[in-house]
Design brief:
The chain has helices at residues 2-25, 29-38, 44-70, 74-100, 111-118, 122-151, 155-184. By secondary structure, the protein is mostly helical.
Length: 185
């Protein structure tokens, strides 16, 4: 009997080892929560930046998608298409950092602003989109990303803001040029 018992002990150990190894590979809700709890928490200012930047990006994307359907000017539609491409990339970068800190809720666009654009068409849409989204939105975004790049607490978020700032600054310059071109015509 002791031979059978000692022969089965390695088998039991092997089964337990395989079970533990398998369990380590399968994401478990409790384990995932534990890893989120272990990640460093963001300062209130960094959390606010993520929220504000997320909303600005979501608003830019939603408004630019509307512009593809509602704008009359070719330059406005081209600007909107560029904003969709660039802001999608920027949003992905911020989403990665947010998820590392346990923030998984997707950003929500400014519904009042999007609502104010939805029923506009043609030149009326172009004017409102350029003023409210392209120029004003990017002006605010430049200030937001500049502040985070200079005084953010989280190094990854600060680096992401620094990397995004030249892109957003360029968008602001493009928006100002577009506004001047539309005013001249």
């Amino acid at each position: 009997m002791s031979v059978t018992h000692s022969a089965s002990l390695p088998s039991v150990m092997r089964v337990l080892t395989l079970a533990l190894a398998a369990a380590a590979c399968v994401p478990v809700a409790g384990a995932q929560t534990e890893s989120v709890a272990q990640s460093p928490t963001l300062s209130p200012a960094d959390q606010q930046f993520l929220q504000d930047a997320g909303q600005a990006g979501a608003t830019e994307l939603a408004a630019s998608k509307l512009a593809l359907a509602h704008a009359s000017g070719r330059q406005v539609r081209e600007f909107a298409q560029r904003m969709i491409v660039d802001h999608t990339k920027l949003a992905r970068n911020l989403d990665v950092i947010a998820k590392r800190h346990g923030i998984t809720a997707p950003p929500v666009a400014d519904s009042a602003l999007i609502g104010s654009l939805q029923n506009l068409q043609g030149a009326e849409f172009d004017k409102a989109y350029i003023e409210k989204v392209a120029v004003s939105g990017h002006q605010k975004a430049v200030e937001l990303f500049k502040k985070e790049s200079e005084s953010g607490s989280d190094s990854a978020l600060k680096a992401a803001a620094s990397k995004a700032l030249p892109v957003i600054s360029h968008h602001y310059e493009m928006a100002q040029q577009l506004a001047k071109a539309m005013a001249a015509s």
